[in-house]
Specification:
- The chain has one domain.
- 16% of the residues are buried.
- The chain is built from five helices and no strands.
Length: 111
Amino acid sequence: MRAWWVFWATVVLGAVLWIAVPLVAGREGFRSLLGQPLGLALLVAPIAAAGVNLIVLRESHEVVCRIEVQRHRSLRAVVGRGYSARTFAATGVVLLAVVVIILAAVPTGRL
């Protein structure tokens, strides 16, 4: 269960950062933050951490998913009997790819 909570904590933290920073700092402040290595690292770290979590702890996520499907039968329409560890790992790889895309887009000014 800890893997599940850590994953969702990183997703929430990432969402809060990606929404709150532009609202508080404004567009130019956000772009300035993206231009600084530490600022960029703070913004992409939760996404990267969530991806690594899904890859490294994929078996734990699979077990939790199956438990939740048993508890909440309505989830079966979405996930069947539960996602496999391979699916969690693939999702983690996608999140890491998003981080790479962000890191590649920042120097070009496309983000």
